[in-house]
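At this stage, I put together a protein sequence along with its fold in token form, as given directly below:
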Amino acid sequence: MRKTKSIRNILEAVRSGNRPLVCVPWSMIICFGIILLSGCRNNMIEFIPETFVVHSIDGYPISHLSVEIDRRNMCFYVMKKNGRKGSPHLRLDSIGDDYEIELYKGGIVSSERYYSIPIMPSEKYVITNFSEGDAGSCMIYVLIDKNLKVKKWGNWNQRDMD
């Protein structure tokens, strides 16, 4: 009898326009789920070693890319410019006009303008694709030899790349 009375009170409150607190969490969960599902897409990227190209597997334009040069404590952030179309593939040593590049070195933003990511000998690169609102990201490790050739690449654990 007691449960029936409380359910009746909730139904009366809803009919009168008042929203009881019981209804709020479910509506928030449903809204969050709809937003999450509508914003999700595959974020998988691959690396083409012969040309230093990062390629979106599903053909979506790459909007944000992080390229960390491990041993030099440098991180380049590649961001699609507002209003630009972007591209599903980016050549690291010559990124196009649709993108801006910022360098963070030791936690400080550099004021220099960059138009490419420098390819350095005997370095390990960590390339991460991420987008605001997307559910996931993809990380690729690339090891460059002393002759500026790709020695090893893939989605390996970082300790396997040394």
